Amino acid sequence: MSSSLIDSTPTRPHSPSAETSHTTSVPSVRQAKTIQRLCDATVEELAEHPFEDMSIRSVARRAGVAPATAYTYFSSREQLVTEVFWRRFSMLPEVESSNQALASTLDGFALLVADDPSLARACSMAMLSHDPAVKTLRDQIGRELRRRLMGASTELDSNGVRALELAIYGALVQAGMGHLSYRELPSLLASVAALMGQI
Amino acid sequence: MSSSLIDSTPTRPHSPSAETSHTTSVPSVRQAKTIQRLCDATVEELAEHPFEDMSIRSVARRAGVAPATAYTYFSSREQLVTEVFWRRFSMLPEVESSNQALASTLDGFALLVADDPSLARACSMAMLSHDPAVKTLRDQIGRELRRRLMGASTELDSNGVRALELAIYGALVQAGMGHLSYRELPSLLASVAALMGQI
DNA sequence: CATTGACCTGGACATGTGTCCAGGTTATGT
DNA sequence: ACATAACCTGGACACATGTCCAGGTCAATG
Question: Do residues B73 and B14 make contact, with C-beta atoms less than 8 angstroms apart?
Fold first, then answer.
């Protein structure tokens, strides 16, 4: 499991016909394409409009999908954005343990969505959502991050991991708020790790 | 200036009649009371309902204020929540420099809204908003936090402050996401500061 | 090719949100 | 006490959002 882009199960539809009909809950090929188009459209949409102006409907329109269909797979724009983040994260190749592995892992995570700030800010906001579907995804992301951090360094204790996680989330949030630029994140995170004597 | 609850100018109304009429932009006594009632109602509302279910209208209803009036002072629920956070922060007494000042400052900030998790999560979300009024407030909060951190420790360099800020925001966000409990924040932040050899 | 079930569409619907304004209420100065 | 301006109210309005359903389209199977 862990990192492959094949089996890293992205979100299941929250109510396609999966529970009413007798079909399985894993999306069909056709459904997977629709979902992928919606995810792509989300990124495009956020490149042009702030998260506040994005809606399921606007994304669906861009993806060439009927609103009702989009609502079948995603219950909120927050879920859409979090799903995009999760897909990027699970596609990110896992670095093998070395003396730079920790730094690479930190940077990789922080820079996942750094290419456009609007998407990044949307992720910061969306991942805090109360939506149960979002909660599932963000717990998944949290577990995967911790797993990768632990794998990247043999000398990280529990406190060290927690401290690094604080720094990462803090960095993402501050970048989302505009208090930091994404360019500085790598060196900033590196210096935090250095301060902690962990690298 | 700095910390007094009197002159720590909370948000001005975004369009009362301030710019069309010849009156000053600082709220009258009557307006201040209305605004305060709205802030109080926000806290009460969030104690019972999640941020997603809170609206300007629901807060106004609870405060005994007409929706149109509430909309006069706050353009979004995000602004309401951020204003509450800012008011608490500016009311928090500033600790005088000592060897525990840094820890007190960190804890004070992290625990500002820790009494009810719903308010805390709301703050995490609200402060990321695109709303210009929110941006003004969060920049204000960021500046004030940095000022207090620098004042609390004489040996903090620029990197140290940044690292601590990362940890604080990260802690608040993770607590907002439910990955951490608010009770652990003080000891966790203390251990981060310790790891950095700053305390 | 024909059929069947899964999938999608388009539009209707109830509900919520942000804005506006005409008129009533409260506070301030004369 | 009276007048005036500031403030608030209640309701109307246009618009967005989430849900539903009847019917059309697609793709796999016999």
Answer: yes
